[in-house]
Amino acid sequence: MSSEKNQIQELIAKRAAKELTGPCVVNLGIGIPTLVAKFIDDEKVYFHTENGLLGVTDIEEDQIDPNLVNAGKLPVGETIGASFFNSAESFAMIRGGHVDVAILGVLQVDQSGQIANWAVPGKNIMGVGGAMDLLVGAKKVIVTTTHTSKDGSSKLLKKCNFPITSTRSVDLIITELAVFEVGENNLKLIELMPGVTLEEVREKTEADFIERIKEGVK
């Protein structure tokens, strides 16, 4: 990973971490979301992985247990008091509304807050994974994503053209350029990231949005 790309991803993750205040149960998706844990020092924020662990934490390389991984098959550690359960119980926890916040990566998100994050037309993908269940069951859903794709095209669209993950809209979108709240069929720009201008956000965002930048936030 290039240094610039890493810095962008960590900027997004650090901003997402500000949305988490314990006590709460948080599920981190694959990619940028996994970086959020680096910026949390609240012992009452409990990380959950859908393959069956509540109490996920980082682990030193020399302490890695190859049998202990998250849903993205990355090695993880366990906090004191962590609990293990099977996948069926884990998804029952998600579907039963016991996850307070889910932080997901996306391929696309549209101005109604619907996301596409599991399939690219013409490419073989294993399946939707836990994202569909998290969108239905989590109390709050936050998207963390780069604002544009590798080709420079906007990831924030008027309407997703990849298969959507769920009809449930997300609540908050965080990119390296801005933060958007999702309203009734519209996006509300509430914050610009450091050094970013409103003109830059307008230029790189296909989706329509309302400007509601909070006073004192630049």
TrEMBL record:
SUPFAM superfamilies: NagB/RpiA/CoA transferase-like. One of its GO terms (molecular function) is CoA-transferase activity. Transmembrane segments: none annotated. It holds the Pfam family CoA_trans. The keyword Transferase applies. It comes from the Bacteria. Keywords: Transferase. SMART domains: CoA_trans. Belongs to the 3-oxoacid CoA-transferase subunit B family. This is 3-oxoacid CoA-transferase subunit B. The lineage of its organism: Bacteria, Bacillati, Bacillota, Bacilli, Bacillales.
